[in-house]
Amino acid sequence: MPRPIDVLDRSKGKRVIVRLKNGIEITGMLQAFDLHLNIWLEEAEERREDTHIKLGSVLIRGDTIVLISPE
Amino acid sequence: MPRPIDVLDRSKGKRVIVRLKNGIEITGMLQAFDLHLNIWLEEAEERREDTHIKLGSVLIRGDTIVLISPE
Amino acid sequence: MPRPIDVLDRSKGKRVIVRLKNGIEITGMLQAFDLHLNIWLEEAEERREDTHIKLGSVLIRGDTIVLISPE
Amino acid sequence: MPRPIDVLDRSKGKRVIVRLKNGIEITGMLQAFDLHLNIWLEEAEERREDTHIKLGSVLIRGDTIVLISPE
Amino acid sequence: MPRPIDVLDRSKGKRVIVRLKNGIEITGMLQAFDLHLNIWLEEAEERREDTHIKLGSVLIRGDTIVLISPE
Amino acid sequence: MPRPIDVLDRSKGKRVIVRLKNGIEITGMLQAFDLHLNIWLEEAEERREDTHIKLGSVLIRGDTIVLISPE
Amino acid sequence: MPRPIDVLDRSKGKRVIVRLKNGIEITGMLQAFDLHLNIWLEEAEERREDTHIKLGSVLIRGDTIVLISPE
Questions:
Q1: Is there a contact between E54 and E42 (Cβ–Cβ < 8 Å)?
Q2: Is residue E39 within 8 Å of residue E63, measured between CB atoms?
Q3: Is F1 within the bounds of a domain?
Q4: CB of A1 within 8 Å of any CB in chain B?
Q5: Across the interface, do D57 and C63 touch by the CB < 8 Å criterion?
Q6: Taking 90 as the threshold, does the pLDDT of residue F16 lie above it?
Q7: What is the percentage of chain F residues whose pLDDT exceeds 90?
Q8: pLDDT at residue number D61
Q9: Closest CA to B61 of B27, B44, B37, B43
Q10: Number of domains making up chain A
């Protein structure tokens, strides 16, 4: 039986969009994740309305995440 | 004795509505879920008042969910 | 010694009112519950002030619940 | 050594006041409680400023509770 | 090595001040506590600005507490 | 490999600043701490803008803490 | 398979930016971290809009963190 995080396995090395509880969206190349949905992105970029801010490498804490979607 | 998540088992592969704590509703075809209510949807769509935004594949973190209902 | 959730056992198959942390009330026929107070209702209906919205089958996540009361 | 919940043992079958995180107070006859402070009350009544609303039997989720006091 | 809750052991049977996350302060004679910082007070009194409200016996849920201080 | 709380070990018996989630800062001599970051301070003092309030001994619940810094 | 916190291993002894749930950003030399993302920084500095405040050594509680990024 497939598990929800299997959708992340298919996105390894690809670009995903991560939406945070504070309303911010971060995109980046998915490097790694764990069962808490802690996530490591490369070439990450923050999107807040019209501004894009480069973050580079970033570790996002799972409990701040609403959803993750392959771009 | 039936368990609450059994209602999700009956909805596998069908369209469900997921209501989030931030007030947003997301619909999609239910692919998988786990005991934390982490959910994987395909053909997902976000509904916020009059706007529908296509999300495609999406993993929703269980702790952001208020309720899930088969459409 | 009786446990708090025993009050739910007596309500199986009967209509209960569930009050959520966001102030919304949902009523429905109690099908199943677990120790986290995740709840499965049938013929569910959302009550918000004067409006009643039919939800049908619904799984409510336990951590969004304030109280549950047999109607 | 006495435990905090021992104060509840002394209140079994008596009326208690339960104050919730959302500011509402509920009183009722204490039937049962568990280690999470989930609580089952009978003849429960909600007190919000000047209004008293009869709730009957009610299960209150422990994590919404600030304090419990024998009346 | 001393543990943080040892400061409570020294306060058993004495008056403590408990500050809650909602800004309210409650004082009372410390009867018992556990590792979650659930607390049982006797002769408890709520202090909110200029008003003192007698609560008598009270069980305070640990996760609503910011700090506890011997008076 | 050093652990984050090792920085607290070096501060035992010295004055630390504790910043809480509600924006308040408390300083005091660090007596003890545990893995939840529950903290026991002596000669504690609350700092809120221009006011300093003496608290004496205080137990701060770990989950209300943002950061701890040796003064 | 790499884990999300491996991105922190590569940043040991280097400067990272930590963004907190309350919107504050703190930079510092990463000394240690654990699985809860509790973090020990040296030469830490708080950045809030135009002001930089020196914090020196600091222990940041993991559950207040949104993301961590090597500078």
A1: no
A2: no
A3: no
A4: yes
A5: no
A6: yes
A7: 83
A8: 97
A9: B37
A10: 1
DSSP secondary structure letter of residue D14: S
Q: Is C13 on the interface with D (CB under 8 A)?
A: no
> B38: nearest CA in chain C?
C61
Q: Does C1 touch chain D (CB under 8 A)?
A: yes
* Res. D4: pLDDT tops 90: yes
**C1 part of a folded domain:** no
Kindly tell me if the per-residue pLDDT of F55 is higher than 90. Answer: yes
The nearest alpha carbon in chain G to A37 belongs to G4
Phi-psi group of G19: left, alpha or beta (phi > 0 → left; psi -120 to 50 → alpha; rest → beta): beta
Query: Is C63 close to B63, i.e. CB distance below 8 A?
Result: yes
Optimal mutation site among A1, A7, A16, A34, interface B, most CBs of chain B within 10 A = A7
Place of tokens 């919940």: D5
Query: Does residue A13 lie in a domain region?
Result: yes
Question: pLDDT category, D48, cuts 50, 70, 90?
Answer: confident
With cut-offs at 50, 70 and 90, classify the pLDDT of residue B26. Answer: very high
Q: In the complex, which subunits touch C with 3 or more CB pairs below 8 angstroms?
A: B, D
Is C48's Cβ below 8 Å from some Cβ in B?
no
Helix, strand or coil for residue B42? strand
The terminus-to-terminus CA distance of chain D in angstroms comes to 25
- What are chain A's partners, defined as 3 or more CB pairs within 8 angstroms? B, G
Report if residue E1 sits inside a domain: no
pTM equals 0.94
pLDDT tens, A28-66? 999 999 999 999 999 999 998 788 999 999 999 999 999
| Closest residue to C67, CB basis, from D32, D34, D59 | D59
Residue G50 confidence class, pLDDT cut points 50, 70, 90:
confident
| Domain of residue A42, residue span | 6-70
Q: F36, F61, F64, F65: best mutation site toward chain E, by most E Cβ within 10 Å?
A: F61
Closest-approach residue (CA) in chain D for E19: D66
Question: According to the model, what pLDDT value does residue G34 have?
Answer: 93
| CA atoms in the 13 A half-sphere facing the CB of A29 | 7
On chain G, the residues whose CB falls within 8 A of the CB of A34 are 3-4
| β-pair type (D15-20, C65-70) | unpaired
Cβ–Cβ under 8 Å, residues E30 and E16: yes
CB contact under 8 A, F4 and G63: no
Domain at A25, CATH number? 2.30.30.100
SS (H, E, C) chain F: CCCCCHHHHCCCCCEEEEEECCCCEEEEEEEEECCCCCEEEEEEEEEECCEEEEEEEEEECHHHEEEEEEC
Q: What is the mean pLDDT of residues E27-43?
A: 96
- E23 token code pair: 């800004």
Nearest to F32 among E4, E65, E66 (CB): E4
